[in-house]
Amino acid sequence: MSKSFYQFLMTHRDPKEVDDITKFANAAHDDHSFPKHSSDYHEISQYLELNGDYLASMVIFDEAWEKYLSEVVKQRTR
């Protein structure tokens, strides 16, 4: 079973907040309502559009999602 988007995002947490995805990961960690078990783009996107005031732009989510998909594909081909 592949990991949820949240699990993937948590691998990018860093207290130094180096880039936008790291900032997103740090903020999502503190968001106790984040859909932690979801791997559904539309569910997470809709949640962030309504509740993700910590996300400067949805482009950041889209970039993180693309990285997530790349990782999931790599895991499936192993």
From TrEMBL:
SUPFAM superfamilies: YozE-like
Residue intervals of the YozE SAM-like domain: 4-69
Matching InterPro entries: UPF0346, YozE_SAM-like, YozE_SAM-like_sf
Pfam families for this protein: YozE_SAM_like (PF06855)
Record-stated family: Belongs to the UPF0346 family.
Protein name per Swiss-Prot or TrEMBL: UPF0346 protein J2S08_001921
